[in-house]
Amino acid sequence: MTGRNKSASINLKGMMVGNGATDWDYDVSPSFPEVAYQFNLIPHSLFKDYQDNGCVVYFNDQRPMNGTDKCPGLWDKINDLTESLNWYDLYRHNYNLDNSLLSHMPERYGTTMIKG
Fold first, then answer.
1. How many CA atoms lie within 13 A of 104 on its CB side?
2. 83: Cβ contacts below 8 Å, ≥ 6 apart
3. Phi, psi of 3 (to 5 degrees)
4. Is the pTM of this model over 0.70?
């Protein structure tokens, strides 16, 4: 700091997030179904059913699940479709995945024919 300008100059070279989960009302489990839907990991019909039933699941059962009696089954379907993924980084390989889980996973790729 010199002269009249008393503000500090910080030379930032990167970014670090200690723990992005800061509010259990929104972070982790409550937000995951929409994230999974936006990443095309779950079908639209499942996400719509989840929303239409007012389902909200809280991380580690911090609070009781909200919604209808259908919500536990819908939450289970979402988890079944995403269980092999790394929730913390959906762009990277899940190195903590148990290899025995892979043998039971359905094929995630399909084909589509357009105009013949």
1. 10
2. 101
3. 55, -145
4. no
Q: Which pLDDT tens digit goes with each residue over 75-96?
A: 999 999 998 888 777 887 777 6
For residue 58, what are its two tokens?
Answer: 């809280």
Mean pLDDT for the chain?
80
Measured CA to CA, the distance from residue 96 to residue 101 in angstroms comes to 11
Phi and psi at 76, nearest 5°, equal: -60, -40
Q: Give percent above pLDDT 70 in the chain.
A: 78
How far, in Å, CA of 86 to CA of 114, rounded?
33
Cβ atoms of 95 and 80 within 8 Å: the answer is no
Do 105 and 74 touch, CB atoms closer than 8 A? no
pLDDT tens profile 40-67: 999 999 999 999 999 999 887 778 889 9
Q: Which distant-in-sequence residues (6+ apart) come within 8 Å of 93 by Cβ? A: 86
